[in-house]
Amino acid sequence: MPDVRLASPQGRWVLFTTVLGSSMALLDSTVVNIALPRIGRDLDADLAALQWTANAYLVTLAGLILLGGSLGDRYGRRKVFVVGVVWFAVASLLCGLAPNAGVLIAARALQGIGGALLTPGSLAIIQASFHRDDRGRAVGLWSGFGGVGAAVGPFLGGWLVDGPGWRWVFLLNVPLALLCVPIALRHVPESGDGKAHGRFDVLGAVLGAVSLALVTYALIEAGEGSVVVAVAAVAGLAAAVAFVYVERRRPDPMMPPDIFASRQFTAVNLVTLCVYAALGGFFFLSAVQLQVVSGYSALGAGTALLPTTVLMLLLSARSGQLAEQIGPRIPLTVGPLLAAAGMLLMLRVGPDASYAADVLPAVLLLGLGLVALVAPLTATVLASVDVSRAGLASGINNAAARAAGLVAVAALPLLTGMGAEAYRSADAFDEAFGRAMVLCAGVLVVGSVIAFTTVRRPAPDCRRPECRTHGAVLAPPLEGERTAGRLTWGRGDSGASGAAGTSGTSGG
Description:
Elements: H1 9-43, H2 47-75, H3 77-97, H4 101-129, H5 132-162, H6 167-171, H7 173-187, H8 202-220, H9 227-249, H10 263-293, H11 298-304, H12 306-326, H13 329-345, H14 355-383, H15 390-416, H16 426-454, E1 481-483, E2 486-488
Antiparallel strand pairs: 1-2
Helix pairs in contact: 1-2, 1-4, 1-5, 1-7, 1-10, 1-11, 2-3, 2-4, 2-8, 2-15, 3-4, 3-7, 4-5, 5-11, 5-12, 8-9, 8-15, 10-11, 10-14, 10-15, 10-16, 12-14, 13-14, 13-16, 14-15, 15-16
């Protein structure tokens, strides 16, 4: 029985450790896009290499995050959390020392593995450690501090890129890990699920990651028109089919297909794919547009996008309360439309763009759209399945959002005609950026239509989100689940494999 009290010294250390650990992954997810133009110049990398710098991390994170929490259940949540922190820090060190783009991309993929171990552990440790009377407040403080971290990230990242250099975006994780690990080992109690059983769905996780990697490669390199690209595309689709086949046949699947028997769950995940594909493309391209075309510094670009996160941090809890009163249909319909309008306003952001007149209105409108939709999206996902599968549903939804974002980053340059050197030319990038914003806005409108035609008010006794405050923009909040007084993470009906959870504050 967890008995750590929040007011005790140990309780404060547990909270500090989990916030610090999750902040490592959060900072990288929010600042790498800002560093891309400088990385490209320093490493003489083309646009495809920059796409992979963003996507290599997401490929392994999205493919393995459904497995991360169940590893903690089986082997100990503190142990897996510490392994994730150390792994992430070593991979970050490799990123910071990378002599070329190839090494950086490989190190980013390794970072994603660390993130898949680290990200689920933060909230799992809090929920498993604190006394039930303090658990809600501890989760609230953790998600609130995480939201502050999400707001600080772009500012800090821009300052690092303009000052010490982009390598410090990654190297900063090393001292954070050196601080986090000994505190975790000394003050965080070990916890696990003694009833965890069944085999881990390693094959499913590998097939999912391989499918994402091959499809991403095919989209990024499609302009080459080579046989290798065609083979990669076919192999990626074959891996996706094999993933579905394996999940249908395994007794303990990572992603049980029968969860999609809920029409509402399926519909909300379609909305998620639309929303986070558009957001992934937007944040990847906008950071480059502001620097390459509008002449902003890295710090200026990071600060320019900051209001979106601040609005989510300040208003996400109230948005969730409103959705509980009026139902999720209207917020999930209006939110994507507001975000789409914000992206269309970005068409005004060109050479010598005025921040107050051109950038700020677009970013504010986008932020209001995210405020309207993110909290109701999470609540609807949790409400659309049986309470015993809430963590699993949340994990699938989070993984879908990350996969949508990485596919968008891979596909948008192809669809908008960006050449390999487009980011080196202000005119070429500006023209393609305009087409990309129209495409992203269109995808958001499709998501709005799906929400309006399919989403219905959930039952009054359904599961509600625990993490009410969040500031991440690249993935929705993740939630754990409680059954019969014990913590479980995304467990299906029969297996130990499942979705790991944390709040949206831990990034995208």
